[in-house]
Amino acid sequence: MEPIVYHGKTLTKPITFRDAISAIETVAFTASPYPVFLNIENHCSYEQQETMARHLREILKDCLLSKVLADEFEVLPSPEELKYKIIIRSRRFSKGQVVTDPEDGERNDEMESNSKDYHPDFSKLIIYSEIVSLKSIEHTISTQKCFHSISFKESKINHLIDVDTPEHLDLIKLSKRHLVRVYPGTKRQNSSNINPINYWSYGVQMVALNYQANDRPMWLQDGFFSDNGGCGYLLKPSFLLSDAVFFNPKEKLHDNMKYLQIHIISAQHLPKENDSIEHHDIVDPYVEVFTYGIQCDNTKHRTPSVRNNGLNPIWDYRINLDIYCPELCLIMFEVRDKDRLNRSTFLGQACIPFNALQRGYRHIKLKAKNGNFIHGTLFVHIQID
Ligand SMILES: [Ca+2]
Ligand SMILES: [Ca+2]
């Protein structure tokens, strides 16, 4: 039987693995030449894994990363070295087994591979991102190689972050050496999303989002990765890379603190609610400004609404903010139509990394929920000190 891909316990329809890989092959590297990771949650039989490996080789051809770039390596290769490569991220050993360095001579039953379950053709394609179980962060850091990667369910990583002790900082240590991925919990059958900035602040490289959701976490991701030319990769700030710098996302940091003033002056050509001419209300727009970042940088502000004017509403409204960690801060503008009886309605959004904000008078192009630009713009003045 052909291996299939589907999202268990949801209403999504299955497709064949072959079709999924073919689709990926046609769109990979259209946005940038940098490597594409395929995260494969493998529930396939031994025979199906052989089929998967064959499809991967035959469809992706030279793009499939099928051997190490260098035999000896202490750190992962850079995205630059992996251009035009598709990297398989998956398990080679059964869940719960903790694999230690096979060269250190120690063996116990827990470390044995279960070769019955994992077909060698598939296993040998897992090169730079092998998912391993987490016994403890300390154990992973001290025993695992750089190509070992950890996945956290949302609830588990939240628990780790929520603890008051400095243990949550171990997560930063972990993400300095290993690729870490967070995925949404099973409760999110409605495809809602986790707030990725909570995990990016700890250096987590991969935060899995439901792309179909068109919600604020998706706008945050769109904004965050709009930096660096939208190539899909960002260099982490030095405090998430270097052991020499202490960083705690729960503390107010003052070293690089910035003072930000956003003067929301006006908007132009805001779309009509639902873009429908049958809708009789002329929009009554207001602007919400959210900052997202480390804990103390999460704020929310809003202007009053301007009655019956979507063409050129003027707010002349100033927001003053202290941004403690600009490197991890995103500014989100959301324009909404106020309604006295019903809930307000979305009109447009824009999300900009703090470090990409331009000073002075600026027009900000607004986007629809799905990230496509609309005609409407915001006119603002930005001051940073
Ligand atoms: Ca109105
Ligand atoms: Ca209205």
From TrEMBL:
Regions that span the bilayer: none
Pfam families associated with the record: C2, PI-PLC-X, PI-PLC-Y
Residue stretches making up the C2 domain: 241-368
Keyword list, A-Z: Hydrolase, Lipid degradation, Lipid metabolism, Transducer
EC class name: hydrolase
GO BP annotation list: lipid catabolic process; phosphatidylinositol-mediated signaling; release of sequestered calcium ion into cytosol
PROSITE patterns in the record: C2, PIPLC_X_DOMAIN, PIPLC_Y_DOMAIN
SMART domains linked to this entry: C2, PLCXc, PLCYc
Domain spans labelled PI-PLC Y-box: 122-240
Name under which the protein is recorded: Phosphoinositide phospholipase C
Reaction(s) the record says it catalyses: a 1,2-diacyl-sn-glycero-3-phospho-(1D-myo-inositol-4,5-bisphosphate) + H2O = 1D-myo-inositol 1,4,5-trisphosphate + a 1,2-diacyl-sn-glycerol + H(+)
EC number: 3.1.4.11
Top-level taxonomic group: Eukaryota
UniProt xrefs under InterPro entries: C2_dom, C2_domain_sf, PI-PLC_fam, PLC-like_Pdiesterase_TIM-brl, PLipase_C_PInositol-sp_X_dom, PLipase_C_Pinositol-sp_Y
UniProt GO MF annotations: phosphatidylinositol-4,5-bisphosphate phospholipase C activity
